[in-house]
Every structure is written in C-alpha cells, then in structure tokens.
Write a structure and sequence with these properties.
Blueprint lengths: L1 E3 L2 E3 L4 E3 L2 E3 L2 H16 L18 H6 L2 E3 L7 H10 L3 E2 L8 E5 L2 E5 L6 E8 L2 E9 L5 E5 L2 E3 L9 H17 L1
Parallel strand pairs: 6-7
Antiparallel strand pairs: 1-4, 2-3, 5-12, 7-8, 8-9, 9-10, 10-11
C-alpha cells in the first residue's frame, strides 16, 4: 500500500496532491484476516504495515454482513441492493473480487476475501434455491453450500441510516453558509 498525503511547499509554491495505491493481494489478505477474526476465536494475525489503518466500526461492519441459506426467503432484488450497500459492484462481463454478476435467477458473487472462488446463489421466485462455491475463472461448481457469509467489499462500510443522517447534516451545514 502507498499513501502520499496532500502537501504545500510555500518556498517553491508547490502543491502536492494526495495519492494512494492499494495492493490487491494485501487488501484480500486484510479481508481474509477480518473474516477469520469475526468468525473464529483461535485466530492470530501477523500483519503488514497496511494493517495499522483503521478498520472502521467493527459493530457496523458485522451488521452489514449478508448471511445466506438455501430455502431462505429473500427476493433477488433485495440481495442485489444489499450487495451494493456493502460496496460490491455489478459487472456482468468481468468477474473479479468485490464484484457480482447477474444472469436470470442466478447471482454470482466474488467475495472480497477470496482469490479464486466465488459464491453462486440460485433463486426460485423470492426464495434462495441453492448456494454453491464456484471457480471464479470457469464458473464450474466446486461444492454445494448450506450457508454462505458475504462480508463487505470495504472495511469502511456504513449503514444506509448513518449515510442519510450524514447527508442531512451536510445539507444543514450548507444552508448555514
């Protein structure tokens, strides 16, 4: 990871823009470590410097997790909305980390903490018919699942309610100007 804060050098009248670059592998490992800490009690994390960055609010992060089970009542539209809320992006062409694709009643999700496998959710009406682990590259089914947990695509997720509250505060402050 790389972060250059914004700066101004008065002697040279030079402005330096802030800049950042995220290493995809380190980001995936951060998500994997977060998932392990959330799910298990026997976890030891050995970290890189990038892990000193704040994780955000752990309670909010946990509340944004999507838990899926076959037979569960959930319209496809609701799952798609929830995925967007936890910062996944829809891309029906390129299937990469932090993205999902939709084909009819099938939703493929490439979780933030995985490198080569995704989750396929098949719907029948407004109910989850089946959940499968798939190879991301080929789409071939690896295994059937009785439960899938989809963690947010970013550590900096916030609930729709908090987002709305922040927007209202911003509007109030702008009106005062």
């Amino acid at each position: 990871d790389y972060y250059q804060p914004e700066a101004y050098v008065p002697g040279k009248d030079l402005y330096i823009e802030k800049d950042a670059a995220i290493n995809e592998e380190i980001d995936k490992l951060r998500h994997s470590a977060t998932c392990a800490v959330m799910e298990r009690k026997d976890v030891v994390v050995v970290s890189s410097v990038s892990c000193i960055y704040n994780l955000g609010n752990p309670a909010e992060y946990r509340d944004m997790v999507i838990s899926l089970r076959p037979g569960m009542a959930m319209p496809r539209k609701t799952l798609l909305r929830r995925l967007v809320e936890i910062q996944y992006e829809r891309n029906d062409v390129s299937f990469t980390r932090n993205h999902f694709r939709v084909r009819g009643d099938v939703v493929d999700i490439f979780p933030a903490n995985n490198t080569d496998t995704g989750i396929r959710v098949e719907f029948f009406g407004d109910e989850i018919d089946s959940i499968q682990e798939i190879y991301a590259l080929t789409g071939v089914v690896k295994a059937g699942l009785n439960h899938a947990v989809i963690y947010p695509a970013s550590h900096y997720v916030t609930s729709p309610e908090k987002r709305e509250e922040a927007l209202m505060q911003i509007h109030l402050e702008l009106e005062k100007l």
